[in-house]
Amino acid sequence: MKAEKTYEMIINDVVFVFEECIDEFGFTVSQATAKTIEENHFIFRKSPFIKVAYLVQLGLESITRGEIVDYVCERLANVDKIIPTLEHEDIHFLKRDSQLYQELAETTVYDIIETTVSGKIHAEYHLGEGIYAE
Prior knowledge:
single chain, 7 helices
């Protein structure tokens, strides 16, 4: 059985997908975010830590590119209440990056990309939330 992803692996995954999708293939931040969530949905349901870690990294990578999708922004608005309930050997890295995201969200100029209702439902499905929660 494959070992659980480390926090460093999650960071590398998000950075790689964004660089490949946006820089090489011309995707938007919204498309790169959706691709990352869709490709990793199977592990989000197994580990709340991994799901939150991906969301934080998506938030950081998005804001540094000047825009973030609304459904990631909405989930990260309350992430500081979720993190204390998570257990993982890399939790201190997640706390650090969550604080960094909050600081950047307050001090950086960026656009919030509004997604369609169907786009949000699609994200909910892959994140295992809403009516799709187990």
